[in-house]
Amino acid sequence: MNRDPSTLTLAHLPCSLLAAGVTLAACSPPARARPGKAGDKAPDNHRRAEGQGADSVAGAAAQQLRGNLADHQQLPQPADAQGYQQDPEETLNGAIFPIEYDEMVVIRDIDFFSLCEHHLLPFYGKCHVAYLPNGRIVGLSKIPRLVEVYSRRLQVQERLTVQIAEALQQKLNPHGVAVVMEARHLCMMMRGVETPNAVAVTSSMQGVFQSQQKTREEFLQLIRRSGPGSGV
After folding, report:
1. Do 39 and 88 fall within a single domain?
2. To the nearest 5 percent, what fractions of the chain are helix, strand and coil?
3. Catalytic-role residue among 119, 166, 210, 212
4. Distance, CA of 134 to CA of 117 (rounded, Å)
5. Considering its fold, how many domains does the chain have in total?
6. Domain finish residue from 46, 74, 102
7. Cys staple from 40: which of 36, 137, 182, 210, with CB 3.0 to 4.6 Å?
8. Known catalytic residue: 27?
9. Is 227 a domain residue?
10. Spatial distance between the Cα atoms of 131 and 145, rounded to a whole number of angstroms
């Protein structure tokens, strides 16, 4: 049902727009010209402004939304954006220990929840992380924490996967890092193509996980399940 744009209030805005910082001011139509005396004709520019008021409502809201997305620091900090207040490097600091261990460390089935930066709809699933130590290890709980820091931001799954892998590679300098993420996206499930059973899988392989097939296959075997996407 079409709604008169002049009657729009905050209650009519989608929650996703409110979460992105679209304010009532952006959605308010321009003030209407006060009518003159009987028989007076409104100036042409007043009539054009009034006629274009409805079109300007959506445009103003979209413009403010784009501005907020361009500068994440302008966004409010709901649960899905708390990652901007956390430093990934500080998350790992204080939990790195020197140790001689040259076998693979794998943490699989890390639950994560994030927010698609294109549609402002959630995506969620499982993250699997592995690294091959090079004289240093990190506390096991810090890896899920790192996943949470990056996922609690406006994201795309591809970038999220790479950010987790690169952060571990830069901080630990291991022989290699591998990250695989499996997720369901509400932007595919409830809109657009509407495929509720689709699972998106992304990976980032660093060091020996990229250069050595046997190492990569060992990791993939360790995170394999009985069926595709059965744990998401």
Report:
1. no
2. 45, 20, 35
3. 119
4. 35
5. 2
6. 74
7. 36
8. no
9. no
10. 16
Are 83 and 183 members of one domain?
Answer: yes
52, 82, 118, 217: which one is catalytic?
Answer: 118
Q: Tell me whether residue 157 is one of the annotated catalytic residues.
A: yes
Q: Of 187, 210, 212, 218, which is the active-site residue?
A: 187
Choose the catalytic residue: 116, 127, 128, 206. Answer: 116
Together in a domain, 167 and 92: yes
- Note the residue count of the chain: 232
Kindly state whether residue 200 falls inside one of the protein's structural domains. Answer: yes
Place of tokens 């998401």: 232
3-state secondary structure of 81: helix
Q: Mark whether 187 is an active-site residue.
A: yes
> Is 232 contained in some domain?
no
**Which of the listed residues 59, 74, 89 is the one where a domain comes to its end?**
74
The encoded tokens of residue 121 equal 């709809």
List 46, 50, 86, 117, catalytic entry: 117
Domain carrying residue 37: 5-74
Catalytic, 100? Answer no
Among the listed residues 128, 182, 185, 206, the single catalytic one is 185
Are 180 and 140 spatial neighbours (Cβ–Cβ below 8 Å)?
Answer: no
**pTM, two decimal places:** 0.64
pLDDT in tens, the chain (232 residues): 544 444 444 444 444 444 444 443 444 444 454 555 555 555 555 545 554 554 555 455 445 555 655 555 554 455 555 667 677 777 788 889 999 999 999 999 999 999 998 888 999 999 999 999 999 999 999 999 999 999 998 999 999 999 999 999 999 999 999 999 999 999 888 888 888 889 999 999 999 999 999 999 999 999 986 444 455 5
